[in-house]
Amino acid sequence: MKVAIVGATGLVGGQMLKVLKERNFPYTELLMVASSRSVGKEIEFDGKTYKVISMEDAIAAKPQIAIFSAGGGTSLEYAPKFAEAGITVVDNSSAWRMDPSKKLVVPEINARVLTKEDKIIANPNCSTIQMVLAIAPLHDKYKIKRVVVSTYQSVTGTGKAAVDQMMAERAGKTLTKEEMAYPYRIDMNVLPHIDVFQENGYTKEEMKMVKETVKILEDESVKVTATAVRIPTMGGHSESVNLEFENEFDLAEVRAILENTEGIVVEDDVKNLVYPMPINAHNRNETFVGRLRRDETQEKSLNMWIVADNLRKGAATNAVQIAEYLVKSNLI
Ligand code: A2P
């Protein structure tokens, strides 16, 4: 099993390598792929030294699977070329997610939709994955009418340049506009702005959460409204989520459902100050849920707090789980 990591020099690419190894993914050969800027550079991984290769050389090497995390433009251009060569692509960018012919997969929820014909499979947005993982089993049980979500997102989601900006600011350096990944200072600040603004006043990140959630739940009746916010943290994304259900729920039952959901860890014991935080979610593959409480202003409504490492379940782990499912189900 030859596996190509496209974007191997990036933050998500690095996590993909770790997750493949930790989960004993059955690879026999790894191809490290990045832009022409990095070709020939060396990557140390698991006691071996790999040379970074180009996209063209990766296609020529015909891996069975390529996991992409190299930006939307790269995916739009290259995923079809890999697919034409018979290589199954799991793509972490937003390029293919809303394409009706492409599957958008969180394995715990909808891996069953995958078939041998799926050559480009989309990994959802990091903020969508952790939210949908926690709300899908509640939707099954109580039917969600409306979701109101506000995010508190880690700088790692923007990539290396953003982490560099925050750390430089923290060290007291003044950066030029060219050196900054964000339009403003991020350390000691909060930016209500992730990805580009759309005609409707929402950002693209917010609209990804709206549209992707509906696609994964396969239910257009679910209404989602989102505010996506970047905060100066690194370990993961946090989300305040308010759910309005069609049906009445019992809080203890909600907790039990979440406790029995694969991939979820309930951390909800406020008497002992137990609640999810990015500092604890860092480098973990699970999604953490807490602060479960009734919305006292509205019937059949619940408030919750959801945290996950955006580079793990929000990106690398979910993509590797898709690859695992493809292998296990003989789909590649
Ligand atoms: P490179 O290091 O050569 O630029 P991050 O989001 O952490 O910045 O990582 C982005 C990843 O995507 C890097 O591995 C980067 O490689 C890769 N990448 C960016 N543009 C391209 C491209 N045109 N072709 C292939 N890989 C790309």
Spell out the key features of this protein.
332 residues; alpha/beta; Dihydrodipicolinate Reductase, domain 2; six-stranded mixed sheet; 10 helices; binds adenosine-2'-5'-diphosphate
How do the helices and strands line up, and which of them pair or pack?
Layout: E1 2-6, H1 11-22, E2 29-33, E3 42-45, E4 48-51, H2 55-60, E5 65-68, H3 72-84, E6 88-91, H4 107-110, E7 120-122, H5 126-142, E8 144-152, H6 160-170, H7 204-217, E9 223-227, E10 237-245, H8 251-259, E11 264-266, H9 278-281, E12 287-294, E13 301-308, H10 312-328
Parallel strand pairs: 1-2, 1-5, 5-6, 6-7, 8-9, 11-12
Antiparallel strand pairs: 3-4, 8-10, 10-13, 12-13
The structure holds adenosine-2'-5'-diphosphate.
In short:
The protein is an alpha/beta fold. The chain has helices at 11-22, 55-60, 72-84, 107-110, 126-142, 160-170, 204-217, 251-259, 278-281, 312-328; strands at residues 2-6, 29-33, 42-45, 48-51, 65-68, 88-91, 120-122, 144-152, 223-227, 237-245, 264-266, 287-294, 301-308. A hairpin with a 6-residue loop joins strand 12 (287-294) and strand 13 (301-308).
Would you mind describing this structure in some detail?
By secondary structure, the protein is of the alpha/beta class. Helix content is 32%, strand content 21%. It contains 10 helices and 13 strands. It has helices spanning 11-22, 55-60, 72-84, 107-110, 126-142, 160-170, 204-217, 251-259, 278-281, 312-328; strands at 2-6, 29-33, 42-45, 48-51, 65-68, 88-91, 120-122, 144-152, 223-227, 237-245, 264-266, 287-294, 301-308. The strands form 3 sheets. A 6-stranded mixed beta sheet has the order 9-8-10-13-12-11. It has a 5-stranded parallel beta sheet with strand order 2-1-5-6-7, with helices on both faces. The chain has a two-stranded antiparallel sheet with strand order 3-4. Helix 1 (11-22) packs across helix 10 and helix 5 runs parallel beside helix 7 (204-217). The radius of gyration is 20 Å and the shape is globular. The chain starts with a strand and ends with a helix. The structure holds adenosine-2'-5'-diphosphate. Adenosine-2'-5'-diphosphate is lined by residues 7-11, 13, 34-35, 37-38, 55, 70-71, 74, 159-160.
